[in-house]
Design goal:
Layout lengths: L1 E7 L11 H10 L3 E6 L7 E6 L2 E6 L9 E8 L3 H9 L3 H4 L1 E6 L23 E7 L10 H14 L2 E6 L7 E6 L2 E6 L9 E7 L3 H9 L7 E7 L6
Antiparallel strand pairs: 1-5, 1-6, 2-5, 3-4, 3-12, 6-9, 7-11, 7-12, 8-11, 9-10
C-alpha cells in the first residue's frame, strides 16, 4: 500500500546528526521508498483560493503554525506497521515529526494517470498541497471537471500527477523523543485545514498559480504552492 510521509518541522524536536541520505539509501535499496523531495521554507508559499468569481492569491502559508511541511516521501509499504518503521527511522522523527497518510487511489478515467519518471520525484518545480477549508462555502467538485483539469494539465505540461489521500482520521504521527518512539493518531499540526492530497505542478510561479486557480477543489479548499528545494549542498 502507498503512503505519503509528510516530513514536518517541530520547535520541540531534538538535535540529530543522523544522515538523511543514509535513510534514503536504506529504504530505496529495500524497494520501499518510491520518491521524495525537500521543500523550500513555508514563508515562500503562495496560497490559492477561489471563492465565487474571485481568485484569491496570498503570500505565505494557509495559517501561521510553528510546525510546517518541510518535505515529503512516497513509500510502498506492506502495511501501516512497516510505514511506521520507515517513518520512525527517519532523522526528522527526532528533529521534527512525521505524518503518515495512506494514499486513496481514485480513477478519473483515461488519460489522467501520473507521468512516469526516474529519480527522486517528478520533474516539476512545485508541489501543490490540497487542504480542506471548513470556512469555505459548500461546493462538491464534479469528478468529470476534476478529470478535465488533470487532462489539461498533463497536456500543457503544468501537471505531472499527484496523490489523493485518505481522511485525516487515518493519519498517524511518528516522533522520537528522549530515545522513546511516540506513535499517535492525528496530523503533524492541530488545525482544521488538513491535507487531502498533493499534485506536482511545473512552470513559473504565475503559470502554476493560474493552473491551480482552475482546479475545482480551489472553490471548496485551499491550495498551497510550495517550491521544491533542489540545492541539496
Amino acid at each position: 500500500m502507498k503512503y505519503v510521509l509528510f516530513v514536518a518541522t517541530d520547535p520541540a524536536g531534538e538535535p540529530t546528526d543522523e544522515n538523511p541520505q543514509a535513510w534514503v539509501d536504506k529504504w530505496n535499496d529495500r524497494g520501499v521508498r518510491v520518491e521524495g523531495m525537500p521543500l523550500r521554507p513555508a514563508a515562500e508559499t503562495r496560497t490559492v483560493r477561489v471563492r465565487g468569481d474571485r481568485v484569491l492569491v496570498t503570500d505565505g502559508p494557509f495559517a501561521e503554525t510553528t510546525e510546517w511541511i518541510a518535505g515529503y516521501d512516497l513509500i510502498e509499504a506492506a502495511d501501516l506497521d512497516e510505514a511506521i518503521e520507515v517513518a520512525a527511522s527517519h532523522p526528522m522523527a527526532s528533529g521534527g515529526r512525521i505524518e503518515i497518510r495512506p494514499v486513496e487511489p481514485i480513477d478519473l478515467g483515461p488519460g489522467t494517470g501520473n507521468v512516469s519518471h526516474e529519480g527522486d520525484a517528478p520533474a516539476s518545480r512545485f508541489l501543490g498541497i490540497f487542504r480542506t477549508d471548513p470556512g469555505a462555502p459548500p461546493f462538491t467538485p464534479e469528478p468529470a471537471a476534476v478529470a478535465d483539469w488533470v487532462r489539461d494539465g498533463l497536456a500543457s505540461g503544468r501537471c505531472l500527477g499527484g496523490e489523493h489521500l485518505r481522511p485525516v482520521e487515518d493519519a498517524t504521527l511518528v516522533r522520537r523523543r528522549g530515545g522513546e518512539l511516540l506513535v499517535t493518531h492525528g496530523a503533524y499540526t492541530d488545525v482544521p485545514e488538513w491535507v487531502s492530497g498533493i499534485v506536482f505542478v511545473d512552470g513559473d510561479w504565475q503559470e502554476a498559480i493560474d493552473y491551480l486557480s482552475r482546479c475545482p477543489m480551489a472553490r471548496s479548499g485551499i491550495l498551497e504552492l510550495r517550491e521544491f528545494c533542489t540545492d541539496l549542498s
